[in-house]
Design brief:
eight-stranded mixed β-sheet, 10 helices
Length: about 325
């Protein structure tokens, strides 16, 4: 789906570049992301890094922990997975977001520095996330975390990894997150094969970039009839038994159709899923223009959903959101 930009975003969107990522540009983009300044984390949140055991035969995984300075113990926790098309990014890019969310919710957030494709294709990034999740559950007492109130979440490719992680945790039956936060997730490699998509209003992530991301992650051309289990979350047929979810996406996002289809399949399989559709919002709008009213409303929506999931004793009954 596509349509005119949201009024809060229209003027700024005209100046956003339509970058079509290529393998040749990848190293340049990684460098620019490393050196680009990012908003500082609030001072009342303690941020530190820990190396945790990685998957069998693989290196340790770095996680970045955000803990409000006055946090009570035990506290709920969120395992956060950053975005970047499976090929870009690091926890530092979300420092302000994670620290602000940890402070506002009164929770611990653990962000995963997973390995990136194409150097490390599937299943390496997902297994790194699973290793971090297992560590979070195993060390919950030491971390001052309530093991029965651990959620998982992410944006874009991080949202795709979140959905796949929920499936993997369900199948392995070792750990059980209580909630999955899916912020415009990258779920379905088959979107790369569509020829009916109008990309005029797509920003920050285009169909050309999508092909590069999925090809790098899968290790082959996307859209094949069959991919390995958990490689593309939308390919799973039976979604029953997964944790409750919150799904948010804009109508000018390349992932709109695949995200809404997945949200509705979750609901059809008996998984509670709150669905928020933002008219005229493009990919990453809430991070690029975080002070816009529509971005503040979007964040408030998923913060409220996390609060209901992680503090059920004080939450009001959940509601299913209509399009905004």
């Amino acid at each position: 789906m596509s349509q005119a930009f949201h009024p809060d975003l229209a003027r700024a969107a005209r100046f956003l570049p339509r970058v079509n990522l290529s393998p040749r540009l990848l190293s340049v983009m990684r460098f620019l992301m490393r050196v680009a300044p990012s908003p500082r984390a609030p001072r009342d949140v303690v941020v530190h890094d820990v190396q945790v055991p990685g998957p069998a035969g693989a290196p340790q995984v770095r996680v970045r922990i955000y803990r409000p300075a006055t946090l009570a113990r035990p506290a709920p926790a969120l395992l956060w997975i950053h975005g970047g098309g499976y090929i870009l990014g690091a926890p530092e890019q979300d420092d302000h977001l994670c620290a602000s969310n940890a402070r506002d919710l009164g929770i611990v957030i653990v962000s995963v520095d997973y390995r990136l494709a194409p150097e490390h294709p599937f299943p390496a990034p997902l297994e790194d996330c699973y290793a971090a999740l297992r560590w979070l559950f195993a060390e919950a007492a030491e971390l001052g975390v309530a093991p029965d109130r651990i959620a998982i979440g992410g944006a874009s490719a991080g949202g795709g990894l979140t959905a796949a992680l929920a499936q993997l945790a369900h199948d392995r039956k070792e750990v059980k997150p209580v909630f999955q936060l899916l912020i415009y997730p990258m779920l379905d490699d088959r979107t790369t094969t569509r020829t009916d998509i109008d990309g005029e209003h797509h920003r920050l992530w285009t169909q050309e970039s999508n092909v590069v991301g999925w090809t790098s992650y899968l290790g082959h051309a996307p859209g094949r009839p069959v991919v390995p289990a958990h490689a593309a979350a939308a390919r799973r047929e039976d979604l029953s038994g997964l944790p409750p979810a919150w799904m948010g996406v804009g109508t000018c996002d390349l992932f709109h159709d695949e995200d809404i289809a997945y949200a509705r399949r979750l609901s059809a399989c008996g998984v509670p899923c709150e669905e928020v559709i933002v008219p005229g919002a493009f990919h990453g709008f809430d991070l690029t223009f975080r002070d816009a009213p529509v971005s503040r409303d979007f964040r408030a929506g998923y913060i409220a959903a996390l609060r209901r999931a992680l503090f059920p004793e004080s939450a009001s009954p959940a509601r299913t959101s209509a399009a905004r």
